[in-house]
Recover the amino acids of this structure.
């Protein structure tokens, strides 16, 4: 999945809906793919790490960071925030510790720049909520 993120076709806006929400929304496919990758990391972190499949997913964190890093500076805010929320989860890996300060700075820019106003508490996996909560985790390291 990470390998196709750079494909220009993933920048295309698509309609996305969630079963529990009554409205659909438009977003670039790329942002949804990045969120999906972040959700897989989130799931793996909440699973027993002695499971070989979980360990395999967690072992991919540096490669996933490399795949999403170019989108941390994307012109599209939806893509940029999806990449940032996923990067926050990825830099918890000790192999990516050298990126923590940069990610913390990016979180500060997004939070202070007014991109994120109120976390959407409907889902703990929503990008704005993940950023608001994870920003504290990253900056405390």
């Amino acid at each position: 999945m990470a390998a196709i993120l750079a494909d220009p076709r993933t920048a295309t806006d698509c309609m996305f809906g969630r079963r529990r929400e009554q409205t659909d929304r438009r977003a670039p496919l790329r942002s949804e793919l990045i969120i999906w990758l972040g959700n897989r990391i989130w799931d793996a972190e909440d699973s027993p790490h002695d499971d070989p499949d979980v360990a395999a997913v967690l072992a991919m964190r540096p490669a996933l960071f490399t795949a999403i890093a170019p989108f941390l500076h994307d012109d599209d805010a939806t893509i940029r925030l999806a990449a940032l929320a996923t990067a926050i989860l990825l830099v918890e890996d000790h192999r990516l510790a050298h990126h923590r300060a940069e990610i913390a700075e990016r979180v500060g820019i997004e939070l202070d720049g007014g991109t994120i106003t109120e976390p959407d508490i409907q889902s703990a996996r929503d990008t704005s909520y993940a950023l608001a909560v994870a920003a504290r985790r990253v900056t405390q390291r």
User: Anything to note?
Assistant: Confidence is low (pLDDT under 50) at residues 114-125, 135-141.
